[in-house]
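Researcher: Next sequence.
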Amino acid sequence: MKAVVLVGGEGTRLRPLTWSTPKPLLPIANIAFLERQLAWLESYGVDEVVLSMGYLPDAFHRHFPEGRFGGVTLRYAVEEKPLGTAGGIRFAAEGITERFVVCNGDVLTGLDLAAMVEFHEARGAEASIYLCQVDDPSAFGVVPTRDDGEVVGFIEKPPRDQAPTNWINAGTYVLEPSVLDRIPPRINVSIEREVFPRMVEAPGALYAFHYDGYWLDIGTPEKYLQAHHDLLRGALPGTLAPGAVERAPGVWTQGEVHIDPTAVLEAPLLVGAGSVIGAGARISDSVLGSGVRVEADSVVVRSVLFDGATVGGGEVLDSVVGSGSTIGHGAGLSDVTIVGPGVTVDGGSRISGGRVPADDPRG
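Model: Next structure:
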């Protein structure tokens, strides 16, 4: 089976992390998010994936220099101009003549893809949409259906007390190649707002598969942090991280690490290879990448430190520190502060809800 994964977005809400790294390549518990998605697709028999790219395409080539991931062959479709979700799918799926899967490149899910394909086939659908259930649908597009799953309409961001359903479009589709004929070539078209709503007018063409399992859009800093916390707590089956060994209940390490005997480690926690944790440091509910240094008396809580980051006696709460960055002695980060790669936060600084640096370093 083939799949198209939409990875062309700029990830603006996750800046400054995404100034130099596309959102799908950001790590989730020390594995690039896209690698997690490709492994999930491969587990359901997908052996070829087309990456529909626009933003920083060279980063994907560098990350997958052999054009493969495991048993999955990768192809690249680079848009010269933004084509929207439908336009991007048509462009990337050029030459596909069989049923295929489409995924948004920022959704972490436990969807049973085999069950969805079986549902699609049993109904003779032209397209099937994965729906998940949320408590508050007002920030999403809701999709009412008939009892057999046939879609009857789309309602964008309804007021919570007026939504006819709390089942939302979760960003995974099973499509027959005939859907591509419904998309005009080489122009910006949305599959969610243009193509699917028009398909509702064709009886028996469009169905929705309801699956009430784990689902998370990682596109905001808050949700990006939540993805790490959820994986640490076992929200999805499978490997937490390569080579991770549980050295105490809920505390995993990868490879060789140095942890001072007086450091306090509180589960859940993942510590990457080559990391050093100093005397009196306290770390809980966090993910540390490889080569991280948490120096004496530092505090890291509910946070993510990328590869090579250093906390030099400061405090990091509910925040993300980019690769190679340093948090100086006595500095404090809190309230979902995001520090980009290669940044030094001076000792004694206090940052709450900040973005450092805020500007594009490429000029």
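Model: Helices lie at 33-43, 57-63, 84-92, 113-122, 191-199, 221-232. The radius of gyration is 22 Å.
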